[in-house]
Amino acid sequence: DAKTTQPNSMESNEEEPVHLPCNHSTISGTDYIHWYRQLPSQGPEYVIHGLTSNVNNRMASLAIAEDRKSSTLILHRATLRDAAVYYCILRGRLGSNYKLTFGKGTLLTVNP
Amino acid sequence: DAGVTQSPTHLIKTRGQQVTLRCSPKSGHDTVSWYQQALGQGPQFIFQYYEEEERQRGNFPDRFSGHQFPNYSSELNVNALLLGDSALYLCASRKPRTSGGTETQYFGPGTRLLVL
Questions:
Q1: In terms of Cα–Cα distance, which of A69, A70, A73, A51 is closest to A60?
Q2: pLDDT for B78-113, tens place per residue?
Q3: Residue closest to B45 by CA, chosen among B82, B92, B13, B115
């Protein structure tokens, strides 16, 4: 599985934007970039995914570098409920990689 | 619409015992995966079940086994428990296979197992 690298932890203030980086220099052309997050005492939850173009949804935005070797998850206005561990994961195409390979993720702390 | 449910929420066992954990997938989902999450680590893939068969397996010993029932629910069995099996066990389900390779997995809250 292609590997991702994330900072161990980041800190933000409430209502400020947060940019969570992820490096994936060995990404293949067919790998999708997925982000999940895990709130305290809960299972992981899907946040967003993309292939080449930037993506937006109600939770966050995903900015993907032109060479696809890095990406950034953007939380536009952090709230206390966004405090969680954020995982950046590469997913292969249908039929090649059903499992999710988690790293240690980035622990995001949001200060009031 | 109920999400993924798991039972029990917590469990305490002693070394050498056997344990069975249960998972009901989200409505409309047919594929179930199990993950083990040790304290301070990300979840590690154990195996995945689809059409009542194990389809993919992670790097876990044969002490870890599973089953999927016709209603898509699933069980994880662990025999001869070791202290190192203490972890949060997560179940995840997803929709039937679609094109695009972007299947989102939905996780349950997990079962916390403590082996003494």
A1: A73
A2: 999 999 999 999 999 988 766 444 578 899 999 999
A3: B92
Contact B107 A105 (CB under 8 A): no
Mean pLDDT, chain A, as a whole number?
91
Name A27's Cβ contacts closer than 8 Å, sequence gap at least 6. A2, A33, A68, A69, A90
Q: Of B41, B45, B108, which is closest to A101 when you measure between CB atoms?
A: B45
Handedness of CA B21, B27, B31, B37 (dihedral sign): negative
- Set of chain A residues whose Cβ sits within 8 Å of the Cβ of B56: 98-99
B58 at interface of A, judged by CB pairs closer than 8 A = yes
Contact of A18 with A108, CB cutoff 8 Å:
yes
Q: Do B45 and A99 touch (CB under 8 A)?
A: yes
- Identify all chain B residues contacting A92, using CB atoms and an 8 Å cutoff: 101
A76-98 exposure pattern, b = at least 16 Cβ within 10 A, e = fewer? eebeeebbbbbbbbbbbeeeebb
Q: Write the pLDDT tens digit of every residue in B59-72.
A: 999 999 999 999 99
Does the CB of B44 have a partner CB in chain A at under 8 Å?
yes
Q: What beta strand segments (E) does B58-116 contain? A: 64-68, 74-78, 87-94, 106-107, 111-115
How near does any CA of chain A get to the CA of B108, in Å? 6
